[in-house]
Amino acid sequence: MDTIWLSGGEWLAVLRIGLGLWWLESWRHKDKKAWFQRGAGIAWAAGIAAEHRWTAVRSGFDAVVAPRPKAMAYVVAYAELALGLGLVTGFLTPIALIGGLVLNVLYFVLMIHDWAEQGQNSMMALISVVALFGMSWQAWSVDGALGLFR
């Protein structure tokens, strides 16, 4: 594949690193005090889930998230941090890409009514798929240096 300036694998690494920075920004911009102590993020999601048009989303949220809001707040926030760090460094990259894709699909389904958020989730999911199938960990990554996921 002919490319300008970088190789194809390096461009995929740029895409992977950019996605990782996007996840880190998702973690950074959260008001941690409100998120963890007052449960603001989970309370917001609970309001959306309660009015969701799909019964499976409402019942799934009520069964999994609602009984443990504080734990889920930590799971969501630190999943975003772990995804960002994994993708930027290229450590356990396929796992981070699949985890990010799953999280974006969950966000997409939960916020199906909020089209302002859907662009972000769609783009992040698309980048995850391209980076995964393009094996973006082959350049500029801990995985590549260690010979993982060949």
Would you kindly provide a written description of the structure presented here, covering whatever features stand out?
This is DoxX family membrane protein. Keywords: Membrane, Transmembrane, Transmembrane helix. The protein is mainly α and 150 residues long. Helix 1 runs antiparallel to helix 5 (69-89), helix 5 (69-89) packs across helix 6 (93-110) and helix 6 packs antiparallel against helix 7. The protein has one domain (19-146). The chain contains eight helices and no strands.
Termini separation: 19 Å
Helix content: over 70%
Count of alpha and pi helical runs: 8
The radius of gyration computed from the alpha-carbon positions, rounded to a whole number of angstroms, is: 17 Å
What count of domains describes the coordinates?
Answer: 1
Instruction: Give the rounded overall mean pLDDT.
Output: 93
Largest β-sheet summary: none
Protein name: DoxX family membrane protein
Organism: Streptomyces cynarae
Transmembrane segments: 6-24, 95-116, 123-140
Keywords: Membrane, Transmembrane, Transmembrane helix
